[in-house]
């Protein structure tokens, strides 16, 4: 029996989503074996700053992809969205590395508790929720694009799902930058 990805996009989306989210939760829960990871203190300290630059760049590539598809430039749209996904994957690898070794970042003790409770935690919660929701949406849109011609894509949910995924992705990346600012710039 021949495996046909085109007919199995929902299943592949589910598998990739479960694996990706399991890795994230395992890293945050510190259950990944870290003995095999090389430890670089300078890289660990640099990752939040690198990931912010990656997030800003991803925001720009998502916006560019949106602009190009509105102009019916499929080739540039595809390149922008693949670049956005590559940036996200790079972000995720760096994040998993850092969190596996260090755990999640602590909110600075010098900051007011009211800021922590009423600003930081809600922003962080929405950022995390959107990041989780985005994973299957992004995989689904990308897998549809990878398995269908542009003409076939018009008859799929790619446009609708892609629009929602890109919107949520933009908000999640933006809130991630706000979290970074509260952890490393403001406080």
Number of helices: 6
User: Distance between the terminal alpha carbons, to the nearest Å?
Assistant: 58 Å
Low-pLDDT residue spans: none
The biggest beta sheet is recorded as: none
CATH class: Mainly Alpha
CATH topology: Four Helix Bundle (Hemerythrin (Met), subunit A)
Looking at the overall shape, the CATH architecture is: Up-down Bundle
- Mean pLDDT value: 93
Task: Name the helicity range.
Answer: over 70%
Structural class: mainly alpha
Count of spatially separate domains: 1
Shape: globular
Radius of gyration: 18 Å
Transmembrane segments: 50-67, 79-97, 117-143, 164-186
InterPro entries: DUF420
Keywords: Membrane, Transmembrane, Transmembrane helix
Protein name: DUF420 domain-containing protein
